[in-house]
Each structure stands twice: as C-alpha cells, then as structure tokens.
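=== RUN LOG ===
request id: a7f3
mode: sequence -> structure
chains: 1
length: 281
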Amino acid sequence: MSISAAAVKTLRDRTNQPMMDCKAALTEANGDMEKAVELLRKKSKDVVDKKGGRETAEGRIAVFVDEGKKVGAILEMRCESPPVVKSEHFMALANDLGKQVALQGATTVEVLLAQPFIGDAKHTVSDRIGDTVGLIRENMKPSRWTRLTGLLGSYVHHDGSVGVLLQVEGDKADPQMLRDICMHITARNPSFGRREEVPAATVAKEQEIARSQIASDPKNASKSPQIVEKIAEGKLKTWFVENVLLEQPFVKDDSKSVGDLLKSAGLKFVKFIRYKVGESS
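=== RESULT ===
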C-alpha cells in the first residue's frame, strides 16, 4: 500500500527513528501506526514512543482545588491562536471555568454552559465565555474536564500547556509535597499510577518485545533459556519503572520512588489526571 509522507513524519516524531525505517515499518504494518511503533520497538531498544504525536490545538490547562471542601477539577480550555493562550482574559476565563466545574460539577458541555456562573449568578457560564469572546474576537470553548473529591494536589506548568490533579488518601498531606509529585507527573508522564493498573495484554506485549530484543542481540545467542528469561524479567521491570508512577524515582530525590515518598508520609495513592493541551481524552 502507499504510505504518505505525513504518516512517516508522524511515526518519526513519535519514535525518533530514521525516516526510511519508519516508512519500512509502516509498509510492513499496512499503515497501522500502533503496529508500526511496536515493530520498531522490537527492532531497536532506543525507540522513544511519544504517544499522541505533536499537539496542534491551542489552549491552556486550568486547575482549581478547594482544600476546605476537599474538591477540585482540572479543565482544558481551547482557543484558536497562540497569542490568546497568554492573554490575561483567556487565563482568567480558564481559571473561572476550572473553579466552576470543581464547585458545581457538570456532566456535559451543554450542562456546564447552562449553569449560573458562580462569579455572577445573574449570568450563565455561556455568558461568561461570550464576554471574553467579545473582548478577544476569537472562538473559545471548554474541551474536557475531570472533577475529583478528597485529599488533592495540583500543578499547572507555567505556560498552561500541561496540568495535573492528584488524589490521595490519608489523614493529612503537605500541599507542597503533593505539588511536587504533580510536577513529577508533569515531567515524567507516567502511563499508569500503580502496577496493578497495567492491563495484562500490555504486560504480555512488553514481554514479547523484550524477548524479541534479546533474541536479536548476538551476544545472547549462547545464553541458556533461564538466563534469557531473567534478562527479559529485568527489561520488564525497567519498563514498569519508566511507566508506572509509584515505581518511578522521584525527580527531586531519585534515591526514593514516588511510592516510597507517599508511604513515608502516611498516604495512599488513589489516582492522577494529567492533561496536555491538544491530546485526546
């Protein structure tokens, strides 16, 4: 089948592999992007898979947490152009809608837009958005959000491109520590919170990839099946450390894992929500 240059470039952006290798992988996978990524990973241990590819949408992430009410929300607000992302009016709108979702909740965009705006109950959320659209003359809308209750921490990157909302259980938590863990999640982008969340199919696929990498290395040709399996187990353990939050070395102190940090504070991890502008839900 014919493989487009755009598809090859997308795979290149995701895996950091040579263009010709990307084209060959896509050809072998009959254009299936995920299968092509897997094929490249089996052939090289140096593949960097940037899931989701490059972001193209404009917007910013807002997070609001009310520690007293133990409720919070993370929200992605979209707009049309990069300059608007930095506009004080757009930033205020995103923050207002994050607070709206945290305190009032909403199941759909339609429900959210129809709610009385918490900053001025005489007007709706739709009116609040309309006021900002009138000032900036650009379309904007809430794209997605998640509301959580309980003991929460949060962080939004300085440019608004990435944000995290973290939920834990315990008697009390240091807000700065939770913020630091959210910063860690922003930087390291774990795929899962705990090992138990990883689907069995994903574990099986990673085991297969590890064994394929081992088999393709001539240095392992004379090793016994038992040794090969030990190497495969080590590769899988490394994958867990790279992809599971609680097993990742904490960015501010890599002598301990995020799981160790929470445990020493008497806290139990519940879940995290990480939004990056332009990513699909």
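=== NOTES ===
The chain has eleven helices and ten strands.
Residues 28 and 36 are 8 Å apart (CA to CA).
=== END ===
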